[in-house]
Design a protein that fits this description.
This is Triosephosphate isomerase. Homodimer. It is also responsible for the non-negligible production of methylglyoxal a reactive cytotoxic side-product that modifies and can alter proteins, DNA and lipids. GO terms for molecular function: methylglyoxal synthase activity; triose-phosphate isomerase activity. By secondary structure, the protein is an alpha/beta fold. It is built from 13 helices and eight strands. Strands 7-6-5-4-3-2-1-8 form an eight-stranded parallel beta sheet. Helix 7 runs parallel beside helix 9 and helix 9 crosses helix 10. The N terminus is likely disordered.
């Protein structure tokens, strides 16, 4: 039988989640799903560090060719997985010219294999270019082009069924962070992705606070670690212990050569999705953040 002191200590054990408003918003079901999520001490991760470069709608054959030469001739940390997200029209160019040790990703795909969908590309077309990855759910797809959580989930499902690796993006806007709803937003986005994943070994989650993308503002290492840790515990509670331990959660949002080492030192930050800096020579420094 526990003593009164033991019971008191047990009641004071800190919960990872200080509040629970999920039931009110009907995002993820009843609050008791989170009541058993307990803070876990940090342990050294065995997950392979992952650095993605999202070139977005930038570059031409000359400038991208110069960048590719820089990457091909650079000394890159051999324990870091590197993937470059090229514009659609340059997927074949990037895959044909990048060293085989560097992967290539498309920046989007549609939810079906073919059809009358002007301007879209399918996973089958991406694979036909020899490309192995696709970025889905990026904030610019969500907030500029109006893609919903449901559509992103459907895209994730079809890409995985087509044997593409998926870099699945989530993240809150500034007003959502200021309103204290960061957790609700990223959990709802993650739920829509998780509902469509059968094999998590092909998925990398990219947490990108929208307010930090291309603004020069960066989440502090502590802010990034806090969200990554809570997200990992959500996965532990709602997917499985094994997936929580193995899935890579990377950070995106104004990552540079100057801040990458401190961000990359956080236990639950398993790499980066890099925008503007991935077009510059400093991308090599970011790739080598854990070298």
């Amino acid at each position: 039988m526990r003593s009164a002191n033991q019971s008191q200590r047990r009641r004071k054990r800190p919960l990872l989640f200080a509040r629970c408003s999920y039931q009110k918003h009907h995002l993820l079901g009843p609050c008791h799903r989170f009541s058993s999520i307990i803070y876990r001490p940090a342990i050294m991760s065995s997950r392979t560090f992952f650095v993605g470069g999202n070139w977005k709608m930038n570059g031409d054959k000359k400038s991208l060719g110069d960048l590719i030469t820089t990457l091909n001739t650079a000394s890159l940390h051999d324990e870091t997985e590197v993937v470059c997200g090229a514009p659609t029209v340059y997927l074949d160019f990037a895959r044909s010219n990048l060293d085989a040790r560097i992967g290539v990703a498309a920046q989007n795909c549609y939810k079906v294999a073919k059809g009358a969908f002007t301007g879209e590309i399918s996973p089958a077309m991406i694979k036909d270019c020899g490309v192995e990855w696709v970025i889905l759910g990026h904030s610019e797809r969500r907030h500029v082009f109006g893609e919903s959580d449901e559509l992103i989930g459907q895209k994730v499902a079809h890409a995985l069924e087509s044997d593409l690796g998926v870099i699945a993006c989530i993240g809150e806007k500034l007003e959502e962070r200021e309103a204290g709803t960061t957790e609700e937003v990223v959990y709802a986005q993650t739920q829509a992705i998780a509902d469509n994943v059968k094999d998590w070994s092909k998925v990398v989650l990219a947490y990108e606070p929208v307010w930090a993308i291309g603004t020069g503002k960066t989440a502090s290492p502590e802010q990034a670690q806090e969200v990554h840790e809570k997200l990992r515990e959500w996965i532990r509670a709602n997917v499985s212990e094994a997936v929580a331990d193995s899935v890579r959660i990377i950070y995106g949002g104004s990552v540079t050569g100057a801040n990458c080492k401190e961000l990359g030192s956080q236990n639950d930050v398993d790499g980066f999705l890099v925008g503007g800096a991935s077009l510059k020579p400093e991308f090599v420094d970011i790739i080598n953040a854990r070298a």
